[in-house]
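thread from #wetlab-drylab

HS: before we spend reagent money on co-crystallization trials with NDP, can we at least see a predicted complex? here's what I'd submit
DV: go for it
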Amino acid sequence: NQEILLVSRPKGLPHEDNFSILDTSIPTIKEGEVLVRSLYVSVDPYMRGRMSDKKSYVPPYALHEVIIGGVVGEVIETKADHLNVGDVVVGYLGWRKYNAVEANQVTKIDPTLAPISTALGVLGMPGLTAYFGLLDIGQPKQGETVVISGAAGAVGMIVGQIAKIKGCRVVGIAGSDTKVDYLIKELGFDVAINYKTTENMKKALAEACPNGIDVYFDNVGGDISDAVLSLINKGARIPLCGQISLYNLEKADIGPRAQTALLINSALMKGFIVGDYSQRFNEGLLQLSQWVKEGKIKYAENIVEGFENIPKAFLGLFKGENLGKQLVKVAEW
Ligand code: NDP
């Protein structure tokens, strides 16, 4: 067996030296547990927060302990009544090749409905984040303009497509021409803007949004959000989902403050954590699977191969290496 530990807390941008791979033995399972062989491991931006020891909505990872995150795996041994060998499950497990885990800590997935990797993406946590953040907080209405930052990522690309289903004008912001092309040509975004090559974001956004901005789904914060918020309409709604442009800053970021824009436009900005909606996950998954089945929602995955490449794949999130959901394929199924 192998596992990946956090051995030092990143300062600024995380580095491969913050992690270490340890050889261990395959655990033996107790009554009520299953042994899960990892197939796909998810790397997610929120993990950066858990690598610091600042207060957040989840406790920090402990130093010299295995990192926990989303994993899809196969049950290869069972001492639990309701899980059989061969079942495919998803859960928050260690960055390990093999995890011994209580059966009620994982959820069985049906591999005949969709590729198993989607349980970590469009039909998992990121998809649900897009669904509830946009529909519950953003409340997009037919004909309105929805702007999404981090638009070519796991969450962002689902947000944009749901907004299209709801009949909105959809404008995405992303960090490469390939991503921008994908959003427009493959996913039907009305406009997409490469923030890395656009000198004046406010001007580009104003051109892209002739009727102003009614919903801003914020994945990144910082300068991009300042530009968007300067163009919001009266009664705008702003689901505050993520702030990835700030996660690696050593000092608090100071910029134009959004409060005035919110005040003069009677706008609503609301932070949320997908877990706030856990009672409604089934509803969200049912609707998302329906849309995927009907071809109304497409998804992309960026798959890196090899257990030892998990840290590298994680670091890639901060360089924008991924189009869609970043996953690591650890073993063949
Ligand atoms: P993504 O798949 O979007 O991956 C991260 C992307 O962020 C990169 O591909 C990169 O794309 C972009 N990025 C990286 N650094 C910067 C930067 N400095 N400025 C602007 N963009 C940057 O990740 P997810 O879809 O999983 O997550 C998106 C956001 O949603 C994150 O902020 C995450 O923390 C948040 N989130 C919140 C949840 C909640 O419950 N509230 C749940 C899940 C995610 P590019 O090439 O465009 O720069």
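DV: The chain has two domains: 2-121+300-329, 125-275.
HS: ok that's useful, forwarding to the group
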